[in-house]
């Protein structure tokens, strides 16, 4: 059930260059189930910016009625959001979308979680839930540079964690695929979220494997009404079939949709 | 007496508030939030003869107090709308205004004829103003003679009243309105989006894959108010006003300009509860304005203050 709520800012802090961690409290948290869902946040009162911002849920703490998002303050909206301090109220619509299926893997099996940049956050709640059900997790996290990296320690607490940075300032130099090339990693199910070129590379490499990818697209409504975030379905020669990333996704089985 | 009740050709509206076409899908998503029966009407997403996938993404880009879209009339096609969307909407006590679009005159005519006999479709909205399709759409809405001819052809086959949705991307909005009135339009809806564009600061490329798109949202409201103000003094058919409505005061302003009902578009995306909120607030606003019935406000800007005295009724 989707709720609309003015939620209380419990904390907000900058955890890396341009990267903010915001924790909110309210009853909307009761509706959160799957890792990989997102919330649609009105970053400011008033009309500019006009639209909400879709931001993935990084961590859920049901006992405290709180959840955390991690986002990059880059545009006008996210910069305004980053100015909120403890005690403020933030207008949230959610939870939205379908997340990562954790029942597609058993306890005792191994999940490989690959995240790129601002695609890393939803994998944290996923890693938490997988470990809770007894699934082992291995993490590969890619960032632009060391100063934009975050949550390495938090992921390390949950399982083996590899870092890649484009400029080589932390971990493996290059992309997450370089980590895959340099290490022999065995897994049963792959879960990934990140920039489309990264997802494409993974799709090529792991075609036919059991894998789930979380996609991103500019959204209007976030609930499936505006048709802004549609993408083509892979096995459709007519080209007329589509899915909406916001309400059918954002997580899809690998190979299901055409990545553009 | 229901102070919000509005009677228009084909439409008995329990209140003047309806979601605008393209901003509400076919209602399913918003039915998660509230009972759609409280709405005055629903303008469903444009229906074309064949299913349409629409334009490549990105399809939306934000602007100051507005947004650009280039969805490209994505819809399941006439057959899909008749088989699935309209029957699903029958569970609600709400008149449906079917937005009809096409590439050729024949497309419009066929869709209009068939969709107008659906039991809950009480009026058509003739979409001659979509800026985001290569053929049809706005091409029908920028030349008065072409718009008039299409209106006439659709009127011949439609079983319900026809409202023509006007594009603001014209030099003479009054001439356009008069042309479609002359051709038999039962009402006007205005305005559709304004053509616009945004460029990416890093790359210099257009943000929308379609390059340009339609600007909507509060940014365009003054344009709509001005056009309705001018048109309503020159035609004798009712106007459903739209363009950036985000508050109850905006609704009042549209009525003052000359609208008889209004549609809420883009703001449904920001606040899914905007329509029920405005409906709830309207009676209090009438009290504040010391008005018994909402319809008394239509055209107040020129009726009361006599902008063009020879057109006062």
Quick overview:
With 260 residues, chain A is α/β, with parallel strands linked by helices.
Description:
- The complex is a heterodimer of chains A (260) and B (313).
- By secondary structure, chain A is an alpha/beta fold.
- Helix content of chain A is 17%, strand content 35%.
- Chain A has helices at 76-81, 121-132, 152-158, 176-182, 196-206, and strands at 3-16, 19-25, 38-42, 53-61, 66-72, 89-96, 110-116, 136-143, 161-165, 172-173, 189-193, 211-214, 230-232, 242-244, 251-253.
- A seven-stranded mixed beta sheet of chain A has the order 10-9-8-7-11-12-15, with helices on both faces. Chain A has a six-stranded antiparallel barrel with strand order 1-2-5-4-3-6. A two-stranded antiparallel sheet of chain A has the order 13-14.
- In chain A, helix 5 links the parallel strand 11 and strand 12 (211-214).
- In chain A, 48% of the residues are buried.
- Chain B has helices at residues 77-89, 105-115, 144-157, 173-182, 221-232, 248-257, 267-270, 274-289, 300-303; strands at 6-8, 11-13, 17-19, 42-47, 60-63, 66-69, 96-100, 121-127, 162-165, 187-190, 194-197, 212-216, 239-242, 261-264.
- Chain B has an eight-stranded parallel beta sheet with strand order 3-14-13-10-9-8-7-4, covered by helices on one side.
- The mean pLDDT of chain B is 94.
- The chains are: A alpha/beta (260), B alpha/beta (313).
């Amino acid at each position: 059930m989707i709720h609309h709520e003015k939620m209380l800012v419990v904390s907000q802090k900058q955890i890396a260059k341009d990267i903010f961690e915001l924790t909110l409290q309210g009853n909307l948290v009761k509706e959160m189930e799957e890792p990989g869902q997102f919330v649609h946040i009105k970053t400011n009162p008033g009309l500019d910016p006009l639209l909400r911002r879709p931001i993935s849920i990084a961590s859920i703490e049901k006992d405290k009625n709180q959840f955390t998002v991690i986002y990059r303050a880059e545009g006008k909206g996210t910069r305004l959001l980053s100015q909120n301090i403890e005690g403020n109220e933030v207008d949230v619509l959610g939870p939205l979308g379908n997340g990562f299926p954790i029942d597609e893997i058993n306890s005792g099996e191994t999940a490989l979680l690959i995240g790129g940049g601002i695609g890393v956050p939803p994998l944290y709640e996923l890693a938490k839930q997988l470990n809770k059900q007894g699934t082992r997790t291995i993490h590969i996290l890619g960032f632009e540079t060391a100063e934009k990296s975050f949550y390495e320690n938090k992921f390390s607490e949950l399982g083996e964690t590899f870092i890649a940075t484009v400029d080589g300032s932390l971990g493996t130099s290059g992309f997450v695929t370089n980590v895959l090339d340099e290490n022999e990693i065995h897994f049963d199910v792959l879960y990934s979220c990140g920039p489309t070129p990264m997802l494409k590379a993974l799709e090529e490499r792991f075609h036919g494997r059991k894998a789930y990818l979380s996609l991103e697209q500019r959204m209007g409504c976030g609930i499936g009404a505006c048709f802004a975030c549609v993408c083509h379905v892979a096995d459709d020669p007519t080209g007329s079939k589509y899915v909406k990333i916001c309400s059918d996704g954002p997580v899809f089985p690998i190979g299901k949709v055409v990545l553009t | 007496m229901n102070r919000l009740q509005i009677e228009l050709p084909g439409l008995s509206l329990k209140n003047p508030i309806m979601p605008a076409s393209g901003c509400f899908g076919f209602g399913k998503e918003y039915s998660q939030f509230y009972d759609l029966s409280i709405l005055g009407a629903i303008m469903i997403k444009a229906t074309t003869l064949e299913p349409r996938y629409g334009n490549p993404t990105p399809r939306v880009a934000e602007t100051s107090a507005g947004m650009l879209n280039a969805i490209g009339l994505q819809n399941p096609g006439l057959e899909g709308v008749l088989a699935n969307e309209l029957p699903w909407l029958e569970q609600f006590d709400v008149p449906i205004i079917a937005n009809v679009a096409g590439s050729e005159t024949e497309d419009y005519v066929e869709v209009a004829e068939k969709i107008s006999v659906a039991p809950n479709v009480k009026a058509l909205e003739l979409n001659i103003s979509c800026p985001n399709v290569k053929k049809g759409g706005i091409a029908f809405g920028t030349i008065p003679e072409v718009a008039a001819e299409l209106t006439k052809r659709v009127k011949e086959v439609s079983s319900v009243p026809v409202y023509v949705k006007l594009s603001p991307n014209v030099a003479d909005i009054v001439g356009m309105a008069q042309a479609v009135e002359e051709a038999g339009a039962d009402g006007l809806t205005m305005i559709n989006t304004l053509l616009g564009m945004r460029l990416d600061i890093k790359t210099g490329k257009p943000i929308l894959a379609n390059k340009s798109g339609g600007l909507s949202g509060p940014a365009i409201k003054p344009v709509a108010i001005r056009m309705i103000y001018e048109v309503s003094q020159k035609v004798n058919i009712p106007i459903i006003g739209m363009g950036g409505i985000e508050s109850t005061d905006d609704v009042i302003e549209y009525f003052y300009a000359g609208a008889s009902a209004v549609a809420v578009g883009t703001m449904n995306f920001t606040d899914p509860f905007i329509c029920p909120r405005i409906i709830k607030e309207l009676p209090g606003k009438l009290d504040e304005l010391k008005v018994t019935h909402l319809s008394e406000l239509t055209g107040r800007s020129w009726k009361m203050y006599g902008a063009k005295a020879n057109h006062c009724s």
